């Protein structure tokens, strides 16, 4: 581990001005910490490495700022002033001079699809969400030239409103013109819907006689033939499961690539929001070989479509017990209650969608299963020790999920498991207090606190109420708990958490020059946003006793920035570059010069 060198920066918001009062406060806080730690004279208190000369933002409720950290065996043994921490620098102890750099806990991404993102980065044919038809044609055409005829082309992601914006008579024929020598399937920005060419449909045996599944649809042309678009379960249950499987080596490589990407953004813990069995096994294999450099909580996958039968609880327990390891945390399950409130109109809403030619007027979407099935699953999973993440993109599904959790609380009592409602951006005002009352977490993911292509497609489907999306401040003020996640690679181009942190404060798109805001009244302060991405979301992984803040006894998971987020215009926070990332006291990322 090399000593760190950087240009000193001013203290954040004047909170570390070198006045006498500030010095006395810092010394008093550090002495209190050291008194709670082993005696300096005790051999067990010797550090492996100490970091001094920093602007340390701890996220601790008792000591919010410090100058230095002492680490032993990957854990923090002291936090305090430079003078006090240097007392632990015995012979052989490495001393890292931070030279004024800003230090904070590692970021926690509470809703992400790491292996899916890794596979996309390594193996798929990709283009930006903003791609035009010409750009998609160029990207797919280039991919077709690089691989042998007959090889599958998989990729994406097209904007949810792409086919409303671009009038393409036959999506299937559009792809056929690019290549009829390769089966092609492209997913949209939500990862819920697919677009295929004729070769791909033929390979899957999908034709005019193929029935639509419950909760899904093959969009058809005037002759009744599938036109290449597959909505929800037509893609997720009929088409996608038949795709050629990724190999175990490819999945492990994707998981490792996702770990590398996460560390580069300062992320040291994630929750895989829909962890297929083979993904869980890949994380476990990486961890057993010492290659996993972050905590991974796995929301074990369950069927996405409609059902009345109970889940296979024993199989979920088997997965949990088999693959739990030091950095892989498996006591989580994912349920899919509805779809997405885009032009696909698959999220369950209280009020109807905007009328259109396909659904007419009065359509409110559908849930995959009823409150009886949902409540039975929540009660049993809660009883067996699982925390449940429920996909609830519509306000009607949010209400139903809260109803089911209320049943579980009545039957099981307060288990202490804080179940999560994922993508809960639409919440009826009557249901806001229930999050706090039932200790339910609002999973605010993906990063959609600002105008974006997917938000515009949602507004086109649900109408003007789409502008009242993601009530962040309202929920926090009600006492509710939130978690933050990227949902990468769905809806966002990368896993960058700093974009989300900036957008929570501004409600504007950090990647655009427009001043347009999305429900500006729901903006929160920078301190609240940083806490949500660290200590707040650590609770969602059930690891808040180990990560999320820099305190004695916790894992030494932290990041180093050249400039404090508090010392820059908020409009620049999204451009933050992490200089170094540490996981359990070991440097796992350093930015190249």
Task: For this entry, give a set of tags.
Diaminopimelate Epimerase, Chain A, domain 1, eight-stranded parallel beta sheet, Urease, subunit C, domain 1, single chain, six-stranded mixed beta sheet, 593 residues, alpha/beta
Task: Chart the SSEs and their pairings.
Blueprint: H1 20-36, E1 49-52, E2 55-57, E3 65-66, E4 68-72, E5 75-80, H2 82-86, E6 94-97, E7 102-105, E8 107-112, H3 114-123, E9 125-126, H4 133-146, E10 153-158, H5 162-165, H6 171-178, E11 184-188, E12 194-196, H7 198-203, E13 216-220, E14 226-232, H8 233-239, H9 248-264, E15 267-275, H10 277-288, E16 295-300, H11 313-323, E17 328-336, H12 371-383, E18 387-391, H13 395-412, E19 420-422, H14 432-437, E20 441-444, H15 453-462, H16 472-477, E21 481-484, H17 497-506, H18 526-538, E22 558-561, E23 578-583, E24 586-590
Parallel strand pairs: 1-6, 2-7, 8-15, 9-10, 10-11, 15-16, 16-17, 17-18, 18-19, 19-20, 20-21
Antiparallel strand pairs: 1-4, 2-3, 4-5, 7-22, 11-12, 12-14, 13-14, 22-23, 23-24
Helix pairs in contact: 3-9, 9-10, 12-13, 17-18
């Amino acid at each position: 581990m090399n000593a760190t060198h950087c240009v000193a920066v001013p203290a954040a918001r004047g909170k570390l001005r070198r006045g006498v009062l500030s010095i006395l406060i810092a010394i008093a806080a550090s002495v209190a910490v050291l008194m709670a730690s082993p005696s300096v004279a005790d051999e067990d208190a010797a550090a492996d490495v100490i970091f001094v000369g920093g602007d340390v933002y701890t996220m601790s409720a008792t000591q919010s700022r410090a100058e230095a950290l002492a680490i032993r065996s990957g854990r923090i043994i002291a936090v305090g002033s430079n003078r006090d921490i240097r007392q632990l620098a015995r012979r052989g102890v490495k001393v890292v001079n931070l030279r004024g750099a800003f230090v904070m806990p590692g970021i926690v991404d509470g809703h992400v699809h790491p292996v899916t993102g890794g596979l996309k980065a390594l193996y798929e044919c990709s283009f930006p969400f903003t791609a035009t038809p010409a750009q998609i044609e160029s990207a797919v055409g280039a991919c077709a030239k690089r691989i042998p005829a007959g090889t599958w082309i998989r990729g994406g992601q097209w904007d949810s409103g792409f086919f409303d914006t671009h009038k393409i008579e036959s999506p299937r024929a559009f792809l056929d013109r690019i290549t009829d020598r390769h089966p092609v399937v492209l997913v949209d920005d939500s990862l819920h819907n697919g677009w295929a060419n004729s070769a791909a449909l033929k390979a899957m045996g999908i034709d005019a006689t193929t029935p639509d599944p419950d909760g899904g649809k093959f969009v058809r042309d005037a002759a009744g033939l599938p036109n290449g678009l597959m909505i929800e379960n037509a893609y997720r249950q009929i088409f996608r499961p038949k795709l050629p499987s990724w190999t175990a080596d490819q999945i492990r490589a994707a998981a490792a690539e996702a770990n590398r990407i996460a560390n580069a953004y300062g992320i040291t813990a994630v929750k895989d929001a829909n962890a297929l069995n083979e993904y869980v096994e890949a994380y476990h294999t990486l961890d057993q070989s010492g290659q996993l450099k972050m905590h991974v909580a796995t929301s074990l996958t369950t069927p996405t479509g409609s059902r009345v039968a109970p889940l296979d609880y024993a199989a979920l327990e088997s997965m949990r017990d088999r693959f739990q390891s030091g950095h892989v945390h498996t006591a989580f399950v994912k349920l899919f209650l509805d779809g997405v409130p885009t032009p696909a109109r698959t999220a369950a809403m209280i009020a109807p969608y905007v009328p259109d030619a396909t659904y007419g007027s009065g359509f409110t979407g559908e849930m995959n299963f009823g409150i009886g099935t949902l409540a039975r699953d929540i009660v049993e999973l809660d009883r067996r020790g699982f925390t449940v993440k429920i996909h609830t993109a519509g306000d009607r599904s949010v209400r139903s999920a809260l109803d089911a959790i209320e049943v579980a609380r009545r039957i099981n009592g307060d288990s202490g498991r804080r179940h999560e409602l994922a993508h809960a951006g639409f919440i009826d005002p009557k249901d806001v207090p229930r999050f706090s009352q039932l200790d339910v977490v609002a999973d605010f993911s993906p990063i959609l606190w600002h105008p974006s292509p997917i938000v515009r497609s949602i507004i086109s489907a649900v109408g003007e109420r789409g502008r009242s999306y993601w009530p962040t401040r309202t929920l926090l003020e009600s006492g509710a708990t939130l978690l933050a996640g990227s949902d990468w690679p769905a809806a966002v181009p990368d896993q960058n958490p700093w974009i989300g942190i900036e957008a929570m404060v501004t409600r504007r798109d950090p990647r655009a020059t427009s001043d347009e805001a999305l429900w500006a009244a729901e903006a929160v302060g920078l301190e609240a946003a940083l806490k949500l991405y660290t200590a707040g979301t650590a609770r969602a992984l059930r690891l808040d006793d180990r990560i999320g803040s820099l305190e004695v006894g916790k894992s030494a998971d932290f990041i180093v920035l050249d400039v404090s987020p508090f010392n820059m215009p908020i409009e620049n926070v999204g451009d933050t570059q992490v200089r170094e990332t540490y996981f359990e006291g070991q440097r796992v990322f350093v930015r190249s010069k």
